[in-house]
Amino acid sequence: DGSTAAVAVLLPGQCLIGNVGDSEVVLGTRNGHGRVEVRVLTELHSPSRNEAEARRVEALGVGLRQGRLAHPRFNPRVLSLAVSRAIGDLGFKDARFTGGAPSGLSARPFVASVGVSAGSCLLLGCDGFWGSVSYLQAV
After folding, report:
1. How far is CA 103 from the centre of its chain?
2. pTM over 0.85
3. How far is CA 60 from the centre of its chain?
4. β-pair type (80-81, 2-3)
5. pLDDT at residue 45 tops 90
6. Hey, how many other C-beta atoms are within 10 angstroms of the C-beta on 79?
7. Which positions ≥6 away from 104 have C-beta within 8 Å?
8. Are residues 64 and 78 in contact, defined by beta-carbon separation less than 8 angstroms?
9. Which H helix or E strand runs over 55?
10. Do 47 and 29 contact (CB within 8 A), yes or no?
């Protein structure tokens, strides 16, 4: 009942980007020598892949089990998430299901603005896509 998201809004000369979870936005360009360069524009919200996110969750007193967000009330072997930010997942956000304990799951997105130029390639993908191809292969 939850999802991750990546968003990009293209404006003249710039791109507004945002994400929650492990969906990412990647920008591909060519340098002066014609080589492809890749720049990840978003941040991963996964405790196992982002140390700052793991620290944020742990600062709330929330447990991590094998790099996953443990549910505060139920056995994490049965109920845990690979991401620490997502849309939905009411079972981790509603006090009726968490017993009022913090779960560490947030819907607060990462948001940024970056300059873009003609000839740039912008890709949005979820963990299933990025888990099967490298950034460079995709661009």
Report:
1. 17
2. yes
3. 19
4. unpaired
5. yes
6. 16
7. 56, 57, 60, 62, 69, 84, 92
8. no
9. helix 51-59
10. no
